[in-house]
Amino acid sequence: MRVLGALLAVVVAVGVGLFAGLVPGHHAVPPEVDFDDAILAAAAQEPPGDRVQAAIDGVRETGFYVGPELRDELTDDEVATVERIIATAPVPVFVVWWADTADAGYNTTYAALDQLRVGVGEDGYYAVVTRGSYPLLGALGYRDPYVDADGKGRAGAALERLVDELAAVPPEREFEGGDTRSDYWGGTGGGIAAGLLFAAIGYLGLLAVVGLVGALSRSAREGRG
């Protein structure tokens, strides 16, 4: 009788464990709000001014645009070096270098970066470098890049360092949604582990029940005897 009870406990416990391990536990995950998409949609509603449009046209050609007010500060070799690094980067890189001005045609440099991304419209890394300021970085289709280059120092060397670091950023595609469910077992391995845990708990629990029933049966027989 004990053997049959133990076998029954094992069969039931293993069945529960297999069910828990093989049937994925999913629960709905609320869709994430993409604030960058909202920012770009707002930027698309505002036509770029002449300055930003010139930058858009410039980076479309070589990936590098220098504002006319700064063109005398870079040699032809320095421009060629920056453009060569951009051309060989694994991810498209678009860099604007210009000076600050009160007559820019945009509210902030962040707004200019957003208009640049909308205007070019290609997946890649974007940088707007205002002389004397840290570069503003963004991306389309990829996670925003991070670099140590601060845009300070001699113009040619600072820009070369910036594009070198941008070209070296590991390309990570931006998350584009997909399954809106989350497996609370933690994947297949977690499901199997949960199944084994349930099997062990079920086995021990049923053994306890079988033992209790056996003890009560023996007590009843002894009472009748």
TrEMBL record:
The chain crosses the membrane at residues 192-216. Keywords: Membrane, Transmembrane, Transmembrane helix. It comes from the Bacteria. This is Uncharacterized protein. It comes from Nocardioides soli.
